Amino acid sequence: MLKKYLLWFLLVVFSLIAVITFAAFNPFQETIEIAVASPMSTTTGRNNVDAVKLYIKSVNQAGGIHGKHVVVTAYDDRSDEKVGLQVGEKIGRSKAVAAIGHYGSRVTLAASKAYQRYNVPVISGSATADRLGEFNWFFRTVFSNQDQAILMANYTKKILEFSKVGLVYTDDAYGKNLGETASRTFRELGGEVVDEWAMGTKESLKKDLQKVITGLKSSIAANQGPDALLAAVAFDDAAEFIRQIRLANINLPIIGGDTFADVDLIRELEKDPKEQKQKGFFTSNLLGVTPVIFGLLDDSGQQFRAEFEREYGREPGWTGASFYDAAVAVVKALKQENISGKNTAELRSLLIARLKKFNSPETAFEGAGRLVYFDKHGNALSPAYIAQFDRQQLVSAFTQLQLVRNPSLVPDLDKKLKSGEILKVGDRYLQKTDIVFAGMDINQLDKIDEQTSSYLVDFYLWFRYQGDVAADDIEFTNYSVDRLDSGEKLSLDKPIEAGQKDGVNYKIYRVKADFTEVLDFRLYPFDRQILKVRFRNTNLTRNQLIYVVDLVGMRGADSNRILQQAKRTHVFSSITS
User: What count of other Cβ atoms lies within 10 Å of the Cβ of residue 489?
Assistant: First the structure.
């Protein structure tokens, strides 16, 4: 019996020692909780939550926030207003210092009653309704409806040069707000809104859609129809709206808001047999507004995308990047404050005050490939882009309007305004930027030389673009002149093929030359080298022209095929030793 008690005594002692030892050596003595709310039944909703977790994982690996471990608590709002309010109540009563979410404006507005009561700082990566900007505790890493509506109207009138549009909007907080502003702005620009249609949601959607289709067919038959449609349609109804319009053989260009640039939209439309048989049946001539196009982001944006895809096996979508930026905002704000000894209510107030100080380019924080700061209403002051679908891939439109942050520094501003190179939109100035899609297909990779860090590449290079653009006026920035057979200058010969298809210009070249990159063989034979071919436009800056990797055109030029080709030509055996 004595041995039994002694055994229990020793177990208790060892347990206490283990707890004390863990507390002494655990770098995280306390935790900070951050809530994230999104509809978890959708790919987009899961992307939002996973993007937040991905960033917080890196924060914790780097030591947390002032030594405190950060915990992410995820809530499924089911894209439902009642559930959203319940989620808001749970977050308000929790120890979460901030809420990241929700996805949609309707749910965010429903939950606002709880956030107002508990003074919870909320940062949404995707809720755009203007009304949300009235709340002192609300911020967003995305544009407001007003901002995207103004862009939609200006792009339609000044870039696409359509003079008549029809407006379709859902009769909810998102649709009415976006639609009214887009319609008013288009008229102010001298355009004509020939008709407007409001659609209910869920039960009345199909009936209202038939009214839209009947009205459009009637006006088109009378030669009084619009040149295009402006669509302020909530995400839950966007796929059905597009499907019914296209099935009715109405092939007008459709310029929509941010819901038309959502990855879940194309996934939903892909299920239809019509889209499976003819790619682009539903999405041709479809444009949407987005705060993020990965092809236009810098290296940090590409790094986020690559890390997300490695971690979760799918693309993050623009909302994933935007929710990631929301998490960055919370962490950056907390790191700039003394949070020691503060309770939840105090931390929430402190966080709201600090987030308001991200209010200029000088105080902006760097997110997933972009700088973000807020205006007085908590709206993100960062670029907004026009995206289009190309063979079921969301890519940049051929023309973008980039924000000019300091117009006073632009030479010949008046001249550029008159020529249309720069547009004045509200109180902002936007630079017209041409987008050129560039792709390559490798024929041969040879002569990898560690002594000169050079390699010989034989490849096809092509450009796709619209308008009169000097797309092929390029210089290769990592061209090697170390080997004699390379010569001293590399210039493009005449294109082996050039033409136009579906309004898009294209030129194809064949290039064979040496290129150089710093090669690191310290881990040989387990090293991994990235062999690049880099070029830039000879005369135009990034404000005037941006080259984007032509992922759609290069889908046939996959890495596995290139690798097999390299093995067949014994490229790796030619590495000098």
Answer: 9
